[in-house]
């Protein structure tokens, strides 16, 4: 069941593995679970994913020094915006999420890096979900300028 998978990810993200490869596998698993969620999920599903998404914005994870980890985190959080669009919550956490998402666009012109396909996927979802509109609503003008 999808909710069980989300709860398992939440438990693992609460104390993430220190091994880079294990962390990347965990983040990929989280993204794959989020990809399976449709837009406008049930209230119980939204409630189930909130702790996992909060763990992704924890500075222990979101402040990771590896750029591929940051892109993977941004990819997961970007799926969150896709799932909740157009009813994304307007709070300070969204500013942090958009900061991670825009940060994932760095080096987008380098097609040889291993996270290139994730970066392109993030860009596609930002375009489809029109996340820029939410960024304007949150007065993230600096992020919008950085994105373009």
Automatic annotation (TrEMBL):
GO CC terms in record: chromatin; nucleus
Compartmental location: Nucleus
Chain ranges passing through the membrane: none
UniProt keyword annotations, A-Z: DNA damage, DNA repair, Nucleus
InterPro entries registered for this protein in UniProt: Pds5 (IPR039776)
Main location (coarse class): nucleus
GO BP field: DNA repair; mitotic sister chromatid cohesion
Protein name: Uncharacterized protein
Organism: Dendrobium chrysotoxum
